[in-house]
User: Fold this.
Amino acid sequence: MKTIGVLVILGAALQAGAQTSPAPLPSDIDPQSYSRLPLLKKDSFDAEGKRAFEVINGPEVQVPRLGPPANSLYSPAAAEPYDVLNQRLRKTVVGPAFFEICTLVPAREYNQQYEWTGHEVGAQRAGVDQKVIDVIKYDRPVTGLPEKEATVIEFGRALLRGNHHVSPAMFQKMVALFGRQGTMEITMILGDYTMTAMLLNAVDQHLSPGRDPLLPPR
Assistant:
C-alpha cells in the first residue's frame, strides 16, 4: 500500500510539472531573444549604430531590451526615431489611461501577445477599468462603457478594420471629446502600436519564461 501511495504522489507531481512546464520554442526562435532574430550586442555596431543603441537602451547596457528595441535595431537609423516617437507619444494631452487604451486596440486587432501582455498591465496601472480592457480583449460591443472610452475603441476599430476609414460623424465626435490635438495624437498612438504589432508578428516575438500570456486566441 505504501508503494502504491508513493507512486500516486509521484505521478501527480510529474503531471503537475508537465502542466507548468513552458511549451518548447519553435525551431526558428532564438533562445535568447525569443524572436526570429538573434540579439545584436552594442559592440557589433559601428559608431553611429552604437549611438542609436545607447539612445534607445541607455549608455551602460550591452544587450538590448527584448521586444521592439531588440528587433528594430536591425535598422539603427529607423530604430532611433521609432523609439523617440514612442517616448513622446507617452506624454500627449490624452494622458496615460487613453494612451494605454490606444495600445490595446491594435494589439487585439493583430493578435499580438507580447504587445498585449505588457500593455494590459500598463493599462491597469494607468487606472483603466478592467471592463474597458475586457471589451477590447474579448472583442465585445462598447455598450455600457463611458463615452470617451467607447469612442476611442470604436475609432481605433474603424481605422483598423474594413475600409480603414472613419465617418465624418465619428471624427467630429472625437474632436468634440478630445480636441483636434488629442484626436491626432490618439491616431498616431494607434499607428505607432500598429507598426509595433506588425514588427513583433513578423519576428514571431515570444514572451520570456515566467511571463503569463494575457491575450486569449480569437
Q: What stands out?
A: The radius of gyration is 21 Å. Residues 6-10 have pLDDT under 50 and may be disordered.
